[in-house]
Amino acid sequence: MKYKLRRKILSQNFLYSLKLTKLLVDNSSIDQNDIVLEIGAGKGLITTELCKKAQKVIALELDEKLFLHLKQFLGNNLNLNLHQIDFLKFPLPKFPYKVFANIPFSIEGEIIRKLLDSNNPPEDCYLIVDKRLASRLSGLPHENQFSLKHKPWFNFSIFYQFKRSDFTPSPSIDSVMWQINKKEVPLLPIEERSSWEKFIEIGFGQGTTVNKNLLKLLSKEQLQNLSAKINFSLKTKSGYLSFPQWLKIYKALRTSEDV
């Protein structure tokens, strides 16, 4: 009973169009030099196309019946490495890799955090997710702690917008393929990640204004100078400041320049 319930909770809406799947994989950055991780390989439609493009495909599938199906019909691909395992328990590669996956909506947040917060995040990542979640995590229409904490090192964009009829069964929500691309030149050293995250947490406080939150780090005079220099209101709520504005405030604080 527990296993059947878990299967229902983690059920996926599968792409069924070979033409669309091929288009998505072909238009991605994946090529013959890449190792690709696929989370939730399902019936293997995406897996098949990835095997044609990539040097190696590491495909994960938790469902026993789907895993056996994949093993039977795709197991002869020499560049395919299949694992029957929960992604949340799977150790991420220690070498450079990319991700291309149609992930279960029920745990998409956990999957995204595991990928981005790891010591070795993917170089490029394509995930089919809830459209609302992709917008929110990208900082649209307003920045939030997640988007700001990751933007010094990652770019977020909508790679493709799906129709509900692109899936079987048809989902009750709108979905997109969300691309997470690691910046070639980070805006902050990775060694400053912890400091940056703490800064953002303080900056957001308990949902109050920038003025009240940042007084924990800067004097009233410094804040007034910064607001004029960077062009923001001290009475603005934290989410309404742009990422470049937050970055400028952080750098001014870190370098102790005359603000």
What does this structure look like?
- With 259 residues, the protein is α/β, with parallel strands linked by helices.
- The chain folds into two domains: 2-182, 3-Layer(aba) Sandwich (Rossmann fold); 190-255, Helicase, Ruva Protein, domain 3.
- Helices cover 39% and strands 18% of the residues.
- It contains eleven helices and nine strands.
- The protein has helices spanning 2-9, 18-26, 45-53, 64-74, 108-116, 131-137, 145-150, 193-204, 210-214, 220-230, 243-255, and strands at residues 14-15, 35-39, 56-60, 80-83, 98-102, 124-130, 154-161, 167-168, 175-182.
- Strands 4-3-2-5-6-9-7 form a seven-stranded mixed sheet. Strands 1-8 form a two-stranded antiparallel ribbon.
Question: What is this structure, in a nutshell?
Answer:
By secondary structure, the chain is an alpha/beta fold. It is built from eleven helices and nine strands.
Taken from the alpha-carbon principal axes, the silhouette is elongated
Fourth-tier CATH superfamily name of the largest domain = Vaccinia Virus protein VP39
Distance between the termini: 62 Å
Question: Which quaternary structure do these chains form?
Answer: single chain
CATH architecture grouping of the largest domain: 3-Layer(aba) Sandwich
Number of strands: 9
SSE order, one letter for each helix or strand: HEHEHEHEEHEHHEEEHHHH
Whole-number tally of structural domains: 2
What's the average pLDDT? 92
Rg computed from alpha carbons, rounded to a whole number of angstroms: 21 Å
Q: What strand line-up does the widest sheet have?
A: 4-3-2-5-6-9-7
Secondary structure tally, helices = 11
Category by helix and strand content: alpha/beta
How much of the polypeptide forms β-strand, as a percent range? 15-25%
Helix content: 25-40%
Biggest sheet architecture: 7 strands, mixed
